[in-house]
Amino acid sequence: MDLSNIKNLKHLDADNFFLLAGPCAIEGEEMALRIAEKVVAITDKLNIPYVFKGSFKKANRSRIDSFTGIGDEKALKILRKVGETFEVPTITDIHTNEDAAIAAQYVDILQIPAFLVRQTDLVVAAAKTGKTVNLKKGQFMSPEAMQHAAKKVRDSKNDNVMITDRGTMFGYQDMIVDFRGIPTMKQYGTTVLDVTHSLQQPNQSSGVTGGRPDMIETIARAGVVTGVDGLFMETHFDPANAKSDGANMLHLDHLEKLLSNLVAIRQVVNGLK
Predict the structure, then answer these.
(1) How confident is the model at residue 122 (pLDDT cuts 50, 70, 90)?
(2) How far is CA 8 from the centre of its chain?
(3) How far apart are CA 259 and CA 251, in angstroms?
(4) How far is residue 225's CA from residue 207's CA, in Å, rounded to a whole number?
(5) Residues 36-47: what's their mean pLDDT?
(6) 67 to 36, 58, 64, 196, 250: CA distances (angstroms)
(7) In this predicted model, what pLDDT tens digit does every residue of 4-19 receive, in sequence order?
(8) What domains lie within the chain, and their CATH numbers?
């Protein structure tokens, strides 16, 4: 897809990877603006095209008492305020056909969660809004199978499609990234590597998903070397107390050093072309 179709996506002439980053869930306006301000400053400094990410609600939870959101409209309005305040595009995930039309009024990119990417009606509803659609590869799907999800978007007269790898589940409690999938999926759309969700450790007996944030740079470096178009990372200034997915999020204080290293690697990769 042509990334210039995404409103307010800057630094496209830098030949860098682009970044989708932000908290797992919108917990409130102050936290969202605080995270966005920091990431915008870093990505502007490093000439990285940036999209702010935040879930307006969390529908896929292990336990009934898990945090699901602060209210749909309230969270969506915060996403719109982030976009307008910092002049950056925004992305959120949707879970129902009705969510597509509602969220499209507030954000620039609609994301289909991995567990729902085979739901034809949901993918088509997202595509028909005209917004860019980011398809998360199911943990249970091969890279080759994602061509069919991407085709559903294009058959709905929308060529703006991304495909995001978030690891494949082997066994019950671990995710593995098969980097052979990146060049395979590049045939079907713009590719993204979801670094932090690929390091989740689901199905814990506590009902709270674990993670390996110590491996974030390892996975991200490998993604850049493999030639992925974009990176996806969830980040927070206090992951230990985040209301969702804190166990695998990157601490905001570590983001600049990580991205600086990744930009240096990208420059080397560009020189090998």
Answers:
(1) very high
(2) 17
(3) 13
(4) 35
(5) 98
(6) 21, 7, 9, 19, 19
(7) 999 999 999 999 999 9
(8) 3-271 (3.20.20.70)
